[in-house]
Design brief:
Blueprint lengths: L16 E2 L2 H4 L4 H16 L1 H24 L6 E4 L2 H9 L9 E5 L4 H14 L2 E5 L8 H9 L6 E7 L11 H9 L4 E6 L10 H4 L3 E5 L11 E5 L25 H7 L7 H4 L1 H9 L5 H24 L13 E6 L14 H10 L1 E2 L2 E3 L6 E6 L6 H15 L1
Parallel strand pairs: 1-10, 3-4, 3-5, 5-6, 6-7
Antiparallel strand pairs: 2-8, 7-8, 9-12, 11-12
Length: 394
């Protein structure tokens, strides 16, 4: 099978056709080498590294990330993952009886659980906007969400790119429309950075959290939380630590409270600059070309599978990033495995060495395959998946 010329930059199992970058990402070997170097430096003299050296190193990493996201780095806090970012915001905010928290039926399960938890804690209502499926246009999403806004709506929680359906949501239009109504938006951008162009400055969201270990290809455990400056006084980290009573005046309260939460391994987020350099350097046009390349590959893969399986796409091309879904015929076994995975997903890996998610949507027995397109993927891999699924469907 023809491999991508970029495959050698990753340490992926050569025996597996890996089409599931979206779940946990995959880190290039040069970035992992940088992480090992930083870990060795930390363990050589832990006190020097974690007391004396960590602050300028973290500042440099945050500056690189701020440049990539087009935002003031002082408005960014490092967190372990986007789920932590969502929880941080939701559990900092205060609500009153009668308030409504708005989301969609495509929201990621972990984030939806956090929303339900906070709603139960405050005795407020979660309102779910059920999006049309198939989705005819971005405007259909905007219209559906706004039709659920009431006088009591206090916050919208929405995926930038949905995990279950890989839809690129029209977050900019929603944020703008809601701010005109005095409502802030918390964007769950787990899949956003590195998959689609992103300017947090232009987006204008009150809160945005994103993973750097997925499409930016940093090590696992690198993520960020952005909080707009005017909202920072109301947001506290999940862990209250030394910054809470710090008397320093050279940094904002937001910086002081989030920068040190106790002993952990800071190397994932310290490797963000290396990840940006390595992946962005793989194509002459840098990150814009990387994202355009992966987007085109995802669309081509979707077209290929739809033709082979004789199905039609469920959303327009402008709602596709570097992931795409292809509907599968009904009738596969509906009971998940002990790991919670669809039996077809288990079979594809165990019998055919293809790693790709099969997602029940909107619910069993309806389902689809969710493709990821990263530089290391090749057209031949999607052809193999199409041939295998075609045979299994028959």
């Amino acid at each position: 099978m023809d491999a991508s010329p970029f495959r050698s930059h990753w340490s992926l199992d050569p025996e597996v056709t890996f089409l599931n970058h979206g779940s946990f990402g995959a880190c290039p070997t040069r970035v992992l080498e940088e992480q090992s170097r930083l870990r060795a430096r930390m363990e050589a003299e832990p006190v020097r590294f974690l007391h004396r050296e960590i602050e300028p190193l973290a500042d440099a990493a945050r500056t690189a990330l701020g440049d990539f996201l087009d935002v003031n780095p002082d408005d960014l806090a490092f967190v372990n993952n986007a789920t932590t970012g969502v929880n941080t915001v939701l559990r900092s905010l205060r609500f009153a009886p009668g308030d409504e928290l708005l989301t969609t039926d495509h929201e990621y399960n972990a984030s939806r659980n956090a929303l339900d938890f906070v709603a139960n804690q405050w005795g407020v209502k979660v309102v779910v906007a059920k999006l049309p499926w198939p989705v005819p246009s971005p405007q259909a999403v905007v219209d559906t969400v706004l039709s659920h806004v009431t006088f009591n709506t206090r916050l919208l929680l929405i995926d930038h790119i949905s995990s279950q359906t890989a839809l690129v949501m029209p977050v900019a239009s929603l944020i703008r429309a809601l701010r005109e109504r005095g409502i802030e938006t918390l964007v769950d951008g787990a899949h956003g950075p590195g998959q689609v162009p992103l300017s947090l400055h232009q987006l204008g969201a009150g809160y945005y959290t994103g993973n750097c270990h997925k499409w930016m290809c940093a090590p696992k455990g690198a993520a960020f939380l952005y909080v707009r400056k005017d909202l920072q006084p109301g947001i506290r980290p999940l862990v209250i630590s030394h910054g809470y009573n710090s008397r320093r005046t050279d940094r904002s309260r937001f910086r002081l409270e989030f920068d040190w939460l106790g002993t952990n391994d800071p190397t994932p987020f310290l490797c963000i600059p290396k990840a940006l350099e390595v992946v962005g350097g793989m194509l002459p046009g840098g990150w814009p070309e990387v994202m355009a390349h992966n987007h085109a590959k995802a669309l081509a893969a979707r077209t290929l599978l739809c033709q082979r399986l004789k199905v039609v796409p469920r959303c327009p091309e402008d709602m596709v990033g570097s992931m795409a879904t292809v509907p599968l015929p009904d009738g596969f076994p509906a009971e998940p495995s002990v790991l919670g995975l669809d039996p077809l997903q288990d079979r594809l890996l165990s019998e055919y060495r293809i790693e790709v998610p099969i997602v029940p949507w909107p619910g069993a027995p309806h389902r689809h395959v969710r493709l990821s397109a990263q530089l290391y993927n090749s057209h031949a891999e999607y052809q193999r998946l199409a041939e295998t699924l075609e045979a299994l469907v028959r």
